[in-house]
Amino acid sequence: ESKGAAKDPGSEPTLGMDPFADTLRRLREAFSAGRTRPAEFRAAQLRGLGRFLQEHKQLLQEALAQDLHKAAFETDISELIMCQNEVDLALKNLPTWMKDEPVAKNLLTQMGSAFIRKEPFGLALIISPWNYPVNLTLVPLVGALAAGNCVVLKPSEISKSTEKVLAEVLPQYLDQSCFAVVLGGPQETGRLLEHKFDYIFFTGSPRVGRIIMSAAAKHLTPVTLELGGKNPCYVDDDCDPQTVANCVTWFRYFNTGQTCVAPDYVLCSPDTQERLLPTLQSAITHFYGEDPRSSPSLGRIINQKHFQRLRGLLGCGRVAIGGQSDESERYIAPTVLVDVEETEPVMQEEISGPILPFVNVRSLDEAIDFINRREKPLALYAFSNNKQVVNQILDRTSSGSFGGNEGFIYPTLTSLPLGGVGNSGMGRYHGKFSFDTFSHHRACLLSHPGLEKLNEIRYPPYTNSKEQL
Ligand code: NAD
């Protein structure tokens, strides 16, 4: 497969030539001609996307099973259903979202009409990662199409099977004069980013986020950066260990821990740690059996590089649960590490794997200090039977999103924005937030030409009588 190729027949790249130029020119021409602006065109694209999801459900499940060994149930709830819900919501609300939004007026503009027009930016680029390769490519696409943009998708080259389906099958369901999938890794994406886009929506690591933002800065292109980081999970002494264990086990080991909003580490007292360990062990056994390796519900690590990285982290602290690994399958058992020090490698980087370190704190204040000393996370979780404890964490910290006695299920709510803050990103999407993200909010004031007499009050000369008004 030729890297960097836009999936456009007849535009295979020649060495040294710009492989993207023809595709981008075609999309720009379509946008300039106003092709993507009519509501009916946008709706047709969304319906096409919906058909793609329905007709190729099995193909997508198979691709995700090949890439991540993802169970079909996990694929359905975290990828396909979420995309379909976004398509349905956008189709239902498109006419309302597209409407000009009237705003308040002052005395001087009373006779005119003041409103916000949501207009498409133009050519949008969406770059996505490998861990939820359908969701994180198509959910932003819904927003970009609904808002009337032409779109270039650059899926991750690491989730190869899904990349192939997106490149070869998806375009058949969309108008190819306005939409393209391009392929490539860091080098090709670097070349792609030399081009001017009108909006860049990136999901991935903070490291690459910086590269994207510098490339965007050259053209003053606005960006949304959906990044990652280490998500703390505070567990209070006043908690129900079984509930916490079920919830934490599910959302730490879902997709084999390769989830940007998963809890990355637990903060709790040494006593609570001791109470939680047996319940975590029983939840893991209940979910994945005595031998998690043979469980159809547990996936595998995406590639050798990440497997080696994760295996290196197993040496931190002390293994309390799990710890087994098998390189030939890229298998890592659901693992809990205890007695972990803040300075150890597992506490320096986002884990993105089935490893859960425990860091001990002696009080709520110490936990809050710990959280606030570090970069602002994408998600923050607090478990307590005491509402005040949950509220204290909420009030005294900052994060992209917050879950109180709740796991990562909140991204399924299209009414809540998904996005980071600080090192975990900027901007937000999902539901109407996606439409707004991909729309320029144009300030419009239309005055009546017949009322020019009234305007004289603002023109020079600024006589005393005008000042007294
Ligand atoms: P990544 O940053 O390595 O890659 C993301 C995308 O950027 C891929 O399409 C890749 O091809 C491209 N890319 C990689 N290097 C590049 C370079 N030098 N120049 C230009 N483009 C480049 O991320 P990943 O490993 O695919 O995904 C894991 C990261 O994504 C984690 O940090 C995770 O937290 C984050 N993530 C965030 C969210 C969110 O919603 N905020 C969701 C999922 C994953």
TrEMBL record:
Q: Where is the composition biased (Basic and acidic residues)?
A: 1-10
Any idea which UniProt keywords this protein has? NAD, Oxidoreductase
* Single GO molecular function: 3-chloroallyl aldehyde dehydrogenase activity
Region feature Disordered, mapped onto this chain: 1-19
Q: Recorded E.C. number(s)?
A: 1.2.1.5
An annotated GO cellular component of this protein is: cytoplasm
Tell me if Transferase is a UniProt keyword of this record.
no
Cite the active-site annotation: E226
Q: Which GO terms describe its biological process?
A: aldehyde metabolic process
Annotated Aldehyde dehydrogenase domain residues: 27-440
Broadest EC class assigned to this enzyme: oxidoreductase
Q: Which family does it belong to?
A: Belongs to the aldehyde dehydrogenase family.
Instruction: Write down what this protein is called.
Output: aldehyde dehydrogenase [NAD(P)(+)]
Q: Provide the taxonomic classification.
A: Eukaryota, Metazoa, Chordata, Craniata, Vertebrata
Q: Which gene encodes it?
A: ALDH3B2
